[in-house]
Amino acid sequence: MLKKADFDEFKRLLLVLRARVRGDVKQMTHEALDRNDGESESKSPTHLAELGTETYEIDFALRQVENEQEFLAEIDAALERIEDESFGICQGCQTEGRSLAKSVIPKLRLRAIPYTKNCVECEQKREASEC
Fold first, then answer.
1. Cα-based angle 94, 100, 104 (whole degrees, multiple of 5)
2. Which of 55, 84, 86, 89 is deepest in the core (most CB within 10 A)?
């Protein structure tokens, strides 16, 4: 089980990560939606192929924003788990009925992926079932 100092360490790590990702999302959204950048000269494409390229680039950027927003949701869920002291407990192991002592996610994994909710074994099972 994790101690209060561990919870504090991971909370700080997650808050820094969340701030960085929020900044990235804000910048990507701005770049995708504000293609003119306030310049007086229009950057509107004059050729149909240019229009297709620009549309693709905007769509690609917005998909990246969507992925980052999902990532933010995972970070927020991890912060909630810290608050209710279930952080560091594998949800997959708990679903399988393993004891709390056998459901602990190793600190090394939590430091690498602080928003994880599963141990390596359960995550591999989850990924295999998605294929």
1. 85
2. 89
Q: Are residues 110 and 79 in the same domain?
A: no
- Whether 112 maps to a domain, the answer reads yes
Asked whether residue 41 is assigned to any structural domain, the reply reads no
Tens-digit pLDDT profile for residues 53-65: 888 888 888 888 8
Residue 104's DSSP bridge partners are 89
Question: Which among 3, 4, 7 is positioned nearest to 79, based on CA atoms?
Answer: 7
Taking the C-alpha atoms of residue 70 and residue 53, their distance in angstroms, rounded to an integer, is 26
Ordered alpha helix ranges (H), the chain = 4-33, 48-83, 91-95, 107-112, 120-130
* Three-class secondary structure of residue 104 per DSSP: strand
pLDDT of residue 5: 94
- Are 61 and 121 members of one domain? no
